[in-house]
Amino acid sequence: MANRSLQLTLNGNAAEPVDIPDDLLMIDYLHEYKNLTGSRLGCGQGICHACVVIVDNPDGTSEEVRTCITGAHYFAGKRVRTIEGHATRDDEGKVTQLNPIQQRFVDEFAFQCSYCAPGFVNAATVLVEKLQRQPVAKSQLEKVVEDSLGHHICRCTGYVRYFSATRNVLTELGLVREG
Amino acid sequence: MSNRDMSRRSFLQGSVVAGVTVTLIPLSNQAFAALKEESVTMPSEQWLGTNGKARSRNDALSKVCGGKVFARDIRAKDMPGWPEQQGHAMLLKITKADHIYAGMDLSWLGAELQPDRIVTAEDLANDGIAFPQDHGPDPLLPVGQVPMFIGHPVAILIWNDFECFRQAKAKLKFNDKAIRYGAKAELYQTDPYGSFRYVRVGGATSADEDEFASLKDSILFPMLRNRRPVWDSQPDLHGDLTERGLYYAGRIKQQIDAPPDNWLVFDERYKTPSIEPAALEPDNGNGWYDTVSKTLHFVVATQCPLEAATETAKMIAPSRFALNNLKIHPGYTVGYGSKDHNIFVYYAALAALYGAGVPVRLANDRYEQFQSGIKRHPFDIRYQLAVDKTDYSFKIFRAEMSVDGGGRANYSSSVAAVGATAAQSIYYMPQNDLQVTAYHSRGVEAGSMRGYGTLQSMASTEMMVDEIADRLGIDAIVLRKKNAMVSGTKNTQGAIPAGALRLHEILDKAAVHEVWKNRHALKQQREAQDPYHWHGVGFAICQKDFGTGSEAPMASVEFTADGHISLRHIGIEIGTGMSTSQALVVADFLGSPASEVTTGETQWDELQLTTGGNPYTMSQAEQNNFLLDPRWVGKLASASSASNSAYYFSHATREAARVLFNHGLWPAALHIWSQGPYGGQANPYVVRREDANWVDGQLTANGMQPLSFAQLAKHAHDLGLITGATVHGFNRWSWAESEFEIGKTRVRLPLDGLAVKYGDGAASEKQAQMNSAGFHLLDRKTVHYPDVQLNNAAVTYYSPVATLVEVKVNKGTGEVQVLNHHSWIECGRVLVEELVKGQLEGGVAMGIGHALMEEMPLYEGGPGEGDWNFNRYRLPMARHVAVWKQTSEILPPLSRSDPAKGIAEVVMIPVVGAIGNAVAHAIGKRVRDLPLTSTRIKEALNG
Predict the structure, then answer these.
(1) Does residue B457 share a domain with residue B538?
(2) Quick one: average pLDDT of A140-158?
(3) Which residue ranges does the record assign to the Aldehyde oxidase/xanthine dehydrogenase first molybdopterin binding domain (chain B) (predicted)?
(4) Residue B538, Cβ neighbours under 10 Å: how many?
């Protein structure tokens, strides 16, 4: 298998270039080459979405991408955020502030085992960023949450707290308009 | 018997197993040191609200930041002292169960991708590996034999680096080329895993003496012949226990076969599917065998770390590897039972052992998890229930259950027994004959999965009762109320459930719920509005046991002179929030929760415990003899399973904290309050311990000056009072009790092991007594163990849940959609409301999956062939569970002294029956085989 060098930006920092096989999946790159194991392997088929990361596009938009079915080289030159990159940390690496979605998930006991939590955090974070550009009408609030999180699988929680926490944080952040 | 290890015998003396020193180190203390994080859990000031309630889970921060929480997240480079090189392994499996295994051929992988090591059955035999008998025989199939099941492993393949592993595995996946098949052969056969019969003939009322019952007399055990249970004994009223039991069973059958005119006899069959637990963390382990020090370092995902450690040590001890030390690191995990008593642990340990000094990781992908992960047992049930048509009372309940345990013995035997003893659901049955047998098959191994047989039996019972109400033409909740147990009535084994039964409270609430009251009008109204769907409402209720009949929780609580409280606990965090709730339980007696929690702790040298015999099957004489040893306990430690954290784990935590209060904080407080002339401020008043109260974190009693915990902790230390307590408890549907001498006081406690620590100011003779791993080990002065006969009770602890569901059924496709649901739950004292509701919400979702969508072929075409994943196995998504509309109600406890009851399993059961009943209400036909797929619904409509 041919190797190629991969360069990308991971959680705001330029990742050290590394020669990796053409067919290496992004999740394996994160786990085995970068020791970032928070993006979790659930199915390997792109169904459960436990493995998603956020790609920040040049136009200022962001999107979820499934790393268990996407080659690492797809991310060449891209800006990628993983679950490990959301919180603000001090010099010792201790968390000093969570992003609003993380905080609300914590406050509402949204997850149990948490294996799927990184995927839900990323999906909801992408939603927040989308609505920051274009707030959602109140009448569409629940639907937009369903559309954004509804493809993620959780086996522990029954989804209730992930959904309500996301709905609540969108309202708190002023991303819901009348209508 | 509600017994999780009926055939197991385990022993462990101190921390030396079969000559191997075993050390269990919580992952958090090791891996996270390397990752600059101190622990998975936060100190209490970060998660505790000012009201004394949890603001969040104490593991929330690590989990929401994608920290290395799971064993699966750990790589060699994360572990201090390990080599950085990370090897990887996989299990090679044979997928045709009707052919002889003739060996393997990996030559087609090419030279570059050949495994660095291949471990076969021959290697295990030559190297003296003593694989755990409970998971045998043939962990790796020897050449020349027919597989026991589809997916039987034949070899462990190990690569020293990830790239070779990855590329080789990609070629081996979905590819039978590596297996050489020999001649076609008869399928492997073996005897049933277990067979039981529970017969009870009650007296005129429940309060009257039973004529025959499992508790009073005996469970009945058949002979096994030609792979089937047979009854050689002849019924005889005056014979031995089996003959008497068969006499009564025969009498029951005669009555139900020739019922009086006023009886309705219901007689139908129910079938339930094989279910994939689908714990999102697949099975995994990562180990390094240090060939120099002969130490196996082992990170593993398990719900039973002590069992994993004990059996791993025993497995390797006699081998050529000359193991000296086993250092095992259990991670936080998730399993819904599937990581309890799991063979995968030992494959992972072997992979590490054969790593030749390279750490080796064995971690299933999802296909492999489907292929070999433990499944929920499918049940085939015949129920007969005789009902008096005049007063609607249940008369006789008969059950014949067949349980498919898959290809390797796991907990099938006890799952079958627990399923049978739960079959009554919430109803008093004056007479019952419940027969159940768990069989071997060529399917994937089934074992402990959430529900443990009770989901299968109780959901069926609830559908049966609803159908009987239809046949009788009465309201289904009225019929339930007529027959629901009340406090003090006997179960089908003749045992009386613990405490108050509040089933009628729940039924009363359900009966007046708007959706239930108006269900027929709602149906008409909705169907008029939506001509493309049928609408239905269904209700079900059940009560499920928590615990196993052999629970052994351990906990240790200590406080320092500066008021820092730490808790060590045997329990492992499996997502339920036990690390949070146990930290809070400490506050009952110490006024503040534990600020530091260590879960999965199994280093309890201070208690010097020994165990032996099988707590489920030993005779009374055997138990009495064991109890002559003051260190013997009926079981060393519980797994995290069987909904056991809220009640059993809390018991140990509370008792440890209670010892600290009674013998540390309270005397310290009295000492402070009594300072000064004539006994100080305490003298004018009468001060009693039973009046002690923690108010805003300060202790007061009978008007005494409030004292902070920090103040008391320091004073207790200065006085050399008790500042640490490690406890062990044993429960066989009742707690073992012992008398201990604490200071000059003899106390009787619901414990069978106790060690204490004295404060910093303790006199030298007290300091000298702390010679058992830093504790003073107290001898039991007397001990009273629950009688072994209580094993036949099978269950005495219950939690009830009821669920009301609205569904619609597409007239064209037959597809069912859950529109809404409401549940009632009674769990005694609520430790953390959000955690209870979270369990309920998650359980209901899992129940919806069981009822409507989850199933797999058992054998050929099923998951054993290695090509199943979430594309073929439908899990409930948010859109399936009425995510915005569902509601629930937790019944308030009777008083503050109610025990907290286990609810992790019961929450998912009533929704299954309720959906079945709602679909019947919608379509006017009964579908008794689960899941209720569109195909089955259309068959029912057309049949």
Answers:
(1) yes
(2) 98
(3) 265-484
(4) 28
**What integer pLDDT is reported at residue A108 of this predicted model?**
98
Residues of B within 8 A of A94 (CB-CB) are 37
- Percentage, residues of chain B above pLDDT 70: 96
Q: Helix H segments across A13-159? A: 26-28, 100-107, 117-133, 141-149
Using an 8 Å CB-CB cutoff, list chain B residues near A81.
Answer: none
What percent of chain B shows pLDDT beyond 90?
91
Answer whether A43 sits within 8 Å of B869, measured CB to CB. yes
pLDDT band at A133 (very low <50, low <70, confident <90, very high): very high
Question: Which B positions 820-839 lie with beta carbon below 8 A of chain A?
Answer: 834-835, 838-839
Q: Identify whether B34 is part of a domain.
A: no
Please indicate if any CB of chain A lies within 8 Å of the CB of B882.
Answer: no
Tell me the average pLDDT across B349-358.
98
Residues of A in contact with B333 (CB under 8 A): 113
Domain boundaries, position A145: 88-177
Q: Provide the pLDDT confidence category of residue B11 given band limits of 50, 70 and 90.
A: very low
Interface of B with A in 344-403 (CB under 8 A): 365-367
ipTM of predicted complex: 0.98
Q: Provide the domain limits for residue B385.
A: 195-274+376-547+795-942
Looking up tokens 């034999």, which residue turns up? B145
What pTM value is reported for the model? Answer: 0.96
Measure the CA dihedral B404/B406/B409/B415, to 10°. -40
Between B650-660 and B578-585, two packed helices, what is the crossing angle to 10 degrees? 30
Contact list in A for residue B166 (CB cut-off 8 A) is 24, 28
Same domain, B515 and B500: yes
| A134 to chain B, closest Cα gap in Å | 24
- Is A39–B66 a contact, with Cβ atoms under 8 angstroms apart? yes
CATH number assigned to the domain comprising residue A50: 3.10.20.30
pLDDT tier for residue B600 given thresholds of 50, 70 and 90: confident
How far apart are alpha carbons B210 and B202 in whole angstroms? 4
Give, as one character, the DSSP assignment of residue A32: I
**Domain total in chain B:** 3
Instruction: Determine the Cα–Cα distance for residues B574 and B348; give it in Å rounded to an integer.
Output: 20
Q: In what order do the strands lie in the sheet with B798-810?
A: B533-545, B798-810, B816-825, B887-890
Same domain, A145 and A122: yes
Domain shared by B814 and B716, yes or no = no
Q: With contact defined as beta carbons under 8 Å apart, do B198 and B432 qualify?
A: yes
Mean pLDDT of B867-873: 98
Banded model confidence at residue B22, pLDDT cuts 50, 70, 90 = confident
Interface test with B, best of A43, A101, A111, A121 (most B CBs within 10 A): A43
Residue of B nearest to A92 (CA): B36
- Residue B770: how many CA atoms within 13 Å on its side-chain side? 19
Shared domain check, B679 and B600:
yes
Please give the biggest Cα pair distance in chain B.
96
Of A24, A40, A149, the CB nearest to B280: A40
Encoded tokens for B149: 């099941």
Instruction: Output the pLDDT for position B306.
Output: 87
Q: Which chain B residue shows the shortest CA-CA distance from A167?
A: B884
Are A149 and A126 a contacting pair, CB within 8 Å? no
